[in-house]
Amino acid sequence: MNAAVSYLERQRARTAPTADITLPSGEVFTIRRPPLKQWIQSGRMPDAFLGKAIATKGQSEDEVARLGEIAVNELSPKDVIKLRNFMNDAICYACVNPRLYRDDLDDVPPDALRVGDLDEEDYQFLLKEIRDNCPSVPVALAGGGVASVESLESFRAQQRG
User: Fold this and answer.
1) DSSP states of 55-75 as a string?
2) What is the β-pairing status of strands 100-101 and 146-147?
3) Cα dihedral 143/144/150/152 (nearest 10)
4) Facing residues of 114 across strands?
5) Of 34-38, 51-55, 78-82, 89-93, where does mean pLDDT reach its minimum?
6) Where are the alpha helices (DSSP H) in the chain?
7) Measuring CA to CA, which residue among 11, 5, 4, 19 is closest to residue 147?
8) Which DSSP letter does residue 100 get?
């Protein structure tokens, strides 16, 4: 195992809030929230897609899907590949159990899955969960402990009201 893979393994082993979710296939996966904000700030999300993603903020799910189709159709083949790799990285990071790995990696443990092993419906379900910021996964609090996404949303609403 090379140093980069070893680092990623240690990073994945850090304690982070997780939740069990049931996929459309009936399988139960344990997931955690990917650090999408950090990835966007570091340039990991393809620039060509970032602007399109920002434009979907506050849109209905149907509108987001429609804009997503338009955006992908407007991307260059190179940017489509970058976007696919970004989405697969997010899914691999999110899935704690079973472990998922990108299809292009050679050193995959025998007890792990590759992204390509997922049913299309399960793959799309996981992408939606990630796009929605994994609402089933509790949020780690600065002072320790966790809180549900719902409790934080109601707290924010009280602060606004």
Assistant:
1) HTTT--HHHHHHHHHHHHHHS
2) unpaired
3) 10
4) 101
5) 51-55
6) 3-13, 36-41, 47-55, 61-74, 77-94, 120-131, 149-160
7) 19
8) E
Please tell me whether residue 144 adopts helix, strand or coil conformation: coil
pLDDT band, residue 140 (cuts 50/70/90): confident
Which amino acid, one-letter code, is at 73? N
Structure token digits, residue 36: 């999408």
Task: Please state, in angstroms and rounded to a whole number, the distance separating the CA atoms of residues 121 and 25.
Answer: 8
Output the six-digit token pair for 103. Answer: 């299809």
120-128 average pLDDT score: 92
Residue entry with tokens 């955006």: 71
pLDDT digits (tens, 9 = 90+) for 57-106: 666 666 656 655 656 677 788 887 888 888 899 999 999 999 999 888 88
Looking at residue 161, what is its pLDDT? Answer: 58
Strands 28-32 and 95-97: antiparallel
- CB-count burial class (<10 Å; 0-12, 13-18, 19+) for 139: middle
Rounded to two decimals, the pTM is 0.71
Q: Distance between CA 154 and CA 128 in Å, rounded?
A: 22
Contacts of residue 150, defined as CB under 8 A and 6 or more positions apart, other chains included, come to 135
Task: Identify the helix (H) or strand (E) that includes residue 2.
Answer: none
